[in-house]
Amino acid sequence: MAVLLVPAYKPDEKMLTFVKQALASERFSAIVAVDDGGGPAYSHIFQALREMGVEVVVHAVNLGKGQAMKTGFNHIMLHHPGEGVVAADCDGQHSLPDTIRVADELEKLQQVDAMVLGSRRMNKTAPWKSRFGNGITRFAFFLATGLKVYDTQTGLRGYPAGLLPRLMEIPGSRYEYEMNMLLSFAREGFQIVELPIETIYIQNNAGTHFHPIRDALKVFSRLFVFAASSLFCYGVDYLLYVLLLGFAPVPLWVCYGGARLVSSTLNFYINRRLVFKAEQGSLLWQILRYYLLAAFVLALGSLGVSGLSYLGVSEYIAKLIVDTLLYVVSFVGQRLLVFRPGQVKRQER
């Protein structure tokens, strides 16, 4: 059986209703609630939970949802070793049947390298902020990781016992923590399983703490690092080319090829370690795929510049257009073909 974890900041009666239902189901081995510094005004809620038999852990001040989850994980590892965890929000947005389905799937997997997501479907009845925000982060997450996760913002998730120590190490103390989890899982090749769940919004989701622009920028940060890596290696390439031309009595093609060989090797190393963090994969196969992709992008670039020039576009403008488009092609190609991500498994109801 799994432990139900409910991090809570200034909860209301909806949390009591949800926990009562969970206790009555007898599906969970224990229920742990974390009072994230709500203060005396909310102490009656947590006292009522204690009287029901819920294990309550208290923060003296508000530390954020991420830290509340880590506190809950720590408590569960100490008092319920070997138990998986199902985390649910305290605001009534997750139904008990869906929470139990996540617990069932978590136990069915029986492995330490998978996370279960309760994935909401953003139909036209969903608040625009939720649809807009999830759409942005879904697209950004795919570009950054190569994984298609439908609901990156869900708070209903299942975590196997074996991964709890690793989850404690992931940075983040507030709402960014759950996005950091997904990015870490994608980078480290862990499996992500999505289960479709009921979409419930309370008061048009007015109380949501989701910030779509902030979260999208966080995901796009990998694209920025990739751009910086490309720009830096381009500078190295050009500098070596100039140096070889000026100081080495060798043919022009040797200067060009030697500079490109050094800069591309440096680019591969930076992207492998810092951008995609894919050091677990086979180095030989990654190198082979990297240079095959580089050859394809080079050929595509040459054709693109020639084609635009033939249509009357300035050679300088043509190169800017083609290189901008190929930047995206190169990033996605490296993410999907060279430094392959983990897995996302979806299930129907």
What would the keywords be for this entry?
349 residues; alpha/beta; Spore Coat Polysaccharide Biosynthesis Protein SpsA, Chain A; 2 domains; 58% helix
Share of helical residues: 55-70%
Radius of gyration: 25 Å
Distance N terminus to C terminus? 22 Å
Query: How large is the count of helical segments?
Result: 11
**Shape by Cα distribution:** elongated
| Helix and strand sequence | EHEHEHEHEHEHHEHHHHE
The count of strands amounts to 8
CATH class of the largest domain: Alpha Beta
Weakly predicted, low-confidence segments: 204-210
Domain module count: 2
**Which sheet architecture does the biggest sheet show?**
8 strands, mixed
Would you tell me the overall average pLDDT? 83
Which structural class fits the helix and strand makeup?
alpha/beta
- CATH level-3 fold name of the largest domain: Spore Coat Polysaccharide Biosynthesis Protein SpsA, Chain A
Strand content: 5-15%
CATH architecture of the largest domain: Alpha-Beta Complex
Which homologous superfamily in CATH is the superfamily of the largest domain? Spore Coat Polysaccharide Biosynthesis Protein SpsA, Chain A
Q: What is the strand arrangement across the widest sheet?
A: 3-2-1-4-6-5-7-8
